Amino acid sequence: xxxxxxxxxxxxxxxxxxxxxxxxxxxxxxxxxxxxxxxxxxxxxxxxxxxxxxxxxxxxxxxxxxxxxxxxxxxxxxxxxxxxxxxxxxxxxxxxxxxxxxxxxxxxxxxxxxxxxxxxxxxxxxxxxxxxxxxxxxxxxxxxxxxxxxxxxxxxxxxxxxxxxxxxxxxxxxxxxxxxxxxxxxxxxxxxxxxxxxxxxxxxxxxxxxxxxxxxxxxxxxxxxxxxxxxxxxxxxxxxxxxxxxxxxxxxxxxxxxxxxxxxxxxxxxxxxxxxxxxxxxxxxxxxxxxxxxxxxxxxxxxxxxxxxxxxxxxxxxxxxxxxxxxxxxxxxxxxxxxxxxxxxxxxxxxxxxxxxxxxxxxxxxxxxxxxxxxxxxxxxxxxxxxxxxxxxxxxxxxxxxxxxxxxxxxxxxxxxxxxxxxxxxxxxxxxxxxxxxxxxxxxxxxxxxxxxxxxxxxxxxxxxxxxxxxxxxxxxxxxxxxxxxxxxxxxxxxxxxxxxxxxxxxxxxxxxxxxxxxxxxxxxxxxxxxxxxxxxxxxxxxxxxxxxxxxxxxxxxxxxxxxxxxxxxxxxxxxxxxxxxxxxxxxxxxxxxxxxxxxxxxxxxxxxxxxxxxxxxxxxxxxxxxxxxxxxxxxxxxxxxxxxxxxxxxxxxxxxxxxxxxxxxxxxxxxxxxxxxxxxxxxxxxxxxxxxxxxxxxxxx
Length: 702
Known about the structure:
By secondary structure, the chain is mainly α. Helix content is 68%, strand content 2%.
């Protein structure tokens, strides 16, 4: 009937608008039951359950054998880790896999059979689940005693496929690889040529005493290549050149040339190429996201124009304002955007909206998120007005920064004076007294600012929240110190009482005071620009962080399986008498668990030790492939990608800073999509309609 059709069109418009908000594809089923299932699947509860399941299955590696959940990471002293009984982690894993099975089933149903065969991610999802379930059954058949578990390496895929932005980022990286390969090939040529030169330059001579460079680093081709590869990472610099330099200073020219050409020229050239290419591919990805948003809004317009209450027009379609208001009431979107769209509708004098007007309304989604601070209170008293002017003036904030600097300087002076004193000789009176004075000033400053600005306006600034929270914590710690140890006085060195000694309490207070000094950042424009750039990267580049977790996880799990049992702990030898090989072995043992595995992979010096120990002294030379692959992916490719996006974000903010006057009461917040908004091209109506007519489940009236 007419009423049922209208309800279906309303629900379709709601879903299409929500797809546009989240940059989702609209190529899914649009019948009533499918729309209900679709909205349930993308509800906060369902997505939270899915995210929790992904977190649990990734966290299983921390407690599975070999586990590393011990207080100390030193393999010589840590007690045996807890190994869960067979079937415990496997049961949890099975529940997670069943959730993923439901997830992929719902996704496959919603997109339809034809779209399923074109979606490589869904097919890979099903294949990963099949392999994981098969490997899970193999584990149970071996009573959890098998060493190789393929499904552990596949777990990061569940995190990867659940994020559309991560998939776009990975696609962009894949498209950038050919350009990266040209520079990596140039690096390989550079490395190979200098390896040949090194083998000729440091060849074995008749005098064995003068062949230290040959013995240690350039005995054969694999050793020579490894030595120079590690030198490219600067992990063995200057150790690799010391024997040759001791023999003849002129040999340093070889190593200087290698380092300058490799590190200063080729590595920075790689950064430039990655920045240029990846920015272009990321721009294309963001352009496709914009197209999805415009397509979702246009699809909502088309289905709303099919409502029976809308008058037919042979030349142009219209949507009634009442129908749009009905849709907006049910759409889940940001309250700011919804209010702005409704205000625009109320200000509109017409009862119907054309496609252009409809699309223009939803351009509110593309605008910067604006945070306006509440106004200051208006006092009637002349005295309070003067106080408000004095303590609300920027100079009062500058005075607080000077006082905080004086506090830092006083702490530094006391620490320098007491650096060589024994704890029993240290007098905590002076440090305790000055901390008490400065904390009282911080408390007075906070109260006066609240008086001048009002509590709501004061709390609307993140810098004030940071400052006020630390002031309250400092005050609580100071009161606790006085309650336990009394007031400061000359010779103030009471015995240990409570959870922390007096010196521990004073140190904790001093660390918080030093941390509080970061309040100066908002007052230094250029520093504030750098900090906001970093914060935007943290907020908006979660996709990069997710892919980094995927890479770390996969390499750590692979390292556990490859090098399990390769090195035996050294025993309880004293740390002071450990030689370099002992340190290398201790570092290597961290690969035997997922937690220490991640730490080892991030350490450049550990990379040097592990590369030599595993490939030369422990297992075989083929183990070098593992570490070289990690270095290429993490340091050469991934770090340069991060630098490229850091530059892009910083340049964008710098340009906006130069072209717009700063407004103190307004804060602008942008996402990655909005970062490129000024250079994106709007899709034409013909492109949108052509794509809509290709929709596998939506039949348009025109």
